[in-house]
């Protein structure tokens, strides 16, 4: 089978070959069924997340031994089942997520880790769902318990997790403020019904958010959703209400912010660290319930996946480049065995 293999740590956005840390193997062994309850999936699409980029760089919190096949969330068609599999049959459409291995034509998972994709859902969209929407769903619904009428501030709002947070915020009835960079991203956010959009390349975040809050007679922000970090986090703390909740999602800016504990004490803030992948180990039922609800929402048209760029495995360096250079508006996808989707949009 074809598989994208990380042979050494480094920048995967460099051109394939030469010093690139990733190599497209065309004769990689097809993974066997490891136990009676395992299922082999022919991957149709897999999502590329910022965490995948960091992992190949060697800068992610989980550092697998070399060589390894990167990848996390994916969707595809059941290709083979073990003798003890009762939940799926060959031909079923499924999606899931893994710590590694989805950047390949086949992947094996236990049946307990797979989710049936409703017939109404596109497989490419389903492959983009677990990590981005799963992160936002667990953060906003399970952890922050975001409610109707609360004010939600989303930083990095045009990225994969940002767009998912906005949609879930609207489903929960929140007043949503989005911060992003660039006219194209701002246009998309406005089309999604965001209550207030800030283009940080053209206007000051502080003045824009404060003016909006004043115009709506709102005291401040109740929930901060932060996948960016850095100076933007520090600036956003100025808007938080007493009793606000801070969701620490990631540090796309490359800078880890400092949240003053004394102010958190005085203002009774709750700070949630959200490492979504660890729920698979510590709270698997939370992930299961979350993804089932998200698939239901997708089937009913309540959420939509915005795919910004789509590539084949052989174009992986371009896919990583789109993530690195923040060209993506929504999700970057890699499609496999599907000429209709495997096309660079750069």
| Termini separation | 27 Å
Quaternary structure classification: single chain
- The gyration radius over C-alpha positions equals 20 Å
SSE class:
alpha/beta
| β-sheet strand percentage | 15-25%
Average pLDDT, all residues: 93
Low-confidence stretches at least 5 residues in length (pLDDT < 50)?
339-346
Largest sheet, described in full?
7 strands, mixed
Pfam family, one: ADH_N
Domain Enoyl reductase (ER): 17-334
GO molecular function: oxidoreductase activity; zinc ion binding
Protein name: Enoyl reductase (ER) domain-containing protein
Walk me through the structure.
By secondary structure, the chain is α/β, with parallel strands linked by helices. It is 29% helix and 24% strand. It is built from eleven helices and 15 strands. The chain has helices at residues 50-57, 123-127, 130-143, 160-171, 183-191, 205-215, 231-236, 261-266, 279-282, 284-299, 316-324, and strands spanning 3-6, 22-25, 38-48, 73-81, 93-97, 106-110, 115-116, 151-154, 175-180, 196-199, 221-226, 240-248, 270-273, 307-311, 331-335. The strands form three sheets. Strands 3, 4, 5, 6, 7, 14 and 15 form a seven-stranded mixed sheet that branches. It has a six-stranded parallel sheet with strand order 10-9-8-11-12-13, with helices on both faces. Strands 1-2 form a two-stranded antiparallel sheet. Helix 3 (130-143) packs across helix 4 and helix 3 packs across helix 10 (284-299). The longest helix has 16 residues, at 284-299. The protein starts with a strand and ends in an 11-residue tail after the last strand.
């Amino acid at each position: 089978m074809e598989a994208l293999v990380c042979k050494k740590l480094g920048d995967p956005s460099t051109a394939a070959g030469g010093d690139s840390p990733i190599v497209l193997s065309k004769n990689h062994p097809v993974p066997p069924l490891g136990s009676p309850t395992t299922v082999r999936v022919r991957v149709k699409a897999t999502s590329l997340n910022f965490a995948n980029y960091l992992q190949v760089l060697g800068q992610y919190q989980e550092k697998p031994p070399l060589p390894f096949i990167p990848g996390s969330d994916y969707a595809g068609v059941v290709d083979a089942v073990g003798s003890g599999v009762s939940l799926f049959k060959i031909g079923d459409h499924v999606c899931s997520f893994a710590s590694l291995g989805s950047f390949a034509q086949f992947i094996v998972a236990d049946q307990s880790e797979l989710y049936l994709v409703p017939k109404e859902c596109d497989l490419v969209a389903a492959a983009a769902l677990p990590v981005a929407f799963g992160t936002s769903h667990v953060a906003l619904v399970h952890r922050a318990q975001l409610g109707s009428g609360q004010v939600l501030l989303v930083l990095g709002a045009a990225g994969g997790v940002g767009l998912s947070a906005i949609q879930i915020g609207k489903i929960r009835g929140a007043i949503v403020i989005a911060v992003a960079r660039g006219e194209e991203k701002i246009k998309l956010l406005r089309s999604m019904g965001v209550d207030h959009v800030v283009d940080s390349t053209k206007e000051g975040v502080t003045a824009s958010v404060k003016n909006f809050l004043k115009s709506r007679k709102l005291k401040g922000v109740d929930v901060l959703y932060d996948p960016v970090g850095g100076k933007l986090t520090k600036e956003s703390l100025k808007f938080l209400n007493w009793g606000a909740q801070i969701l620490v999602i990631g540090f796309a800016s490359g800078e880890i912010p400092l949240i003053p504990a004394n102010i958190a004490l005085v203002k009774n803030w709750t700070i949630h660290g959200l490492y979504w992948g660890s729920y698979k180990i510590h709270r698997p039922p939370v992930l299961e319930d979350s993804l089932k609800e998200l698939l239901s929402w997708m089937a009913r048209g309540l959420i939509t996946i915005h795919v910004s760029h789509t590539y084949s495995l052989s174009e992986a360096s371009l896919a990583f480049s789109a993530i690195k250079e923040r060209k993506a508006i929504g999700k970057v996808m890699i499609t496999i065995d599907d000429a209709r989707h495997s096309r660079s949009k750069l």
